[in-house]
Design brief:
By secondary structure, this protein is α/β, with parallel strands linked by helices. The protein contains eight helices and ten strands. The chain folds into two domains: about 1-215, Rossmann fold; about 215-244, no CATH class. A hairpin with a 2-residue loop joins strand 1 (about 1-10) and strand 2. It starts with a strand and ends in a 5-residue tail after the last helix. The structure holds adenosine-5'-diphosphate (ADP). One of its GO terms (biological process) is quaternary ammonium group transport.
Length: about 240
Amino acid sequence: MLDIKNINKKYKGEAVLQDLSFTLKAHEMLSILGRSGSGKTTLLKVLAGLETADRGQLLLDGQDLSPVPANQRGIVYLYQEALLFPHLDVFENVAFGLRLRHRPEAEIKKKVNALLQRLELPEQARKMPEQLSGGQRQRVAFGRALIIEPRVLLLDEPFGALDTETRRSMQQLLKRVSKDLGLTAIFVTHDLKEAMLMGDRLGMMQGGQLKIYGSRAEFIADESTGAREEARFWTDLHDLKLTK
Ligand code: ADP
């Protein structure tokens, strides 16, 4: 579906993306794990059309994306701050993309209500953004993105601002919604467990280079992902009988 070939990007002479190549299949979620500063956000911005690559090729269903402006790519970029219109209620925030496309009222009602249901937001439909919790706001942001049925969803640490418990439930909700709707998405995070939980496939970004793993086992076996270290920690804790 998405075919990325030899993408390079420099900021003031500093290489931020180095010869990145990968493919994203339809209906899969690719998790990219990486430390802060490894180039994750830059990669997503290049895909979304918010930044341009110095070199390389971006193909979406065989179409070269480079001449296509950001708002016509069908690629939505979401990050941890849920950007909502403060003067519109939840329903209207989600409906926005359909109103922009002049869809009939009956269709808007039907689609928005179905999506609010899916995102466990029906009781919040008439609330204003300022009346919502962080997790609810993030769900409305998903609703705004999903209502226009994007071809690819780019998620940049979307749960980074949420507390641990809310983060857990949001991960599960997104996983469910993603399977149900067959989303095609890239999920970037610096959190190992989150990457492993969200991704159908796993990748790791280090110093502007991206490695995609053939399997979960391969990801775990690579010391640099930190997965083995995490496993060893729990084994040691268990052996020391500190888990009781
Ligand atoms: P991540 O999302 O993994 O934290 P980023 O893609 O935000 O990483 O940043 C990668 C590198 O590129 C960092 O060293 C950052 O300082 C640099 N960088 C990002 N955006 C810009 C910019 N607009 N101008 C100059 N340097 C930038």
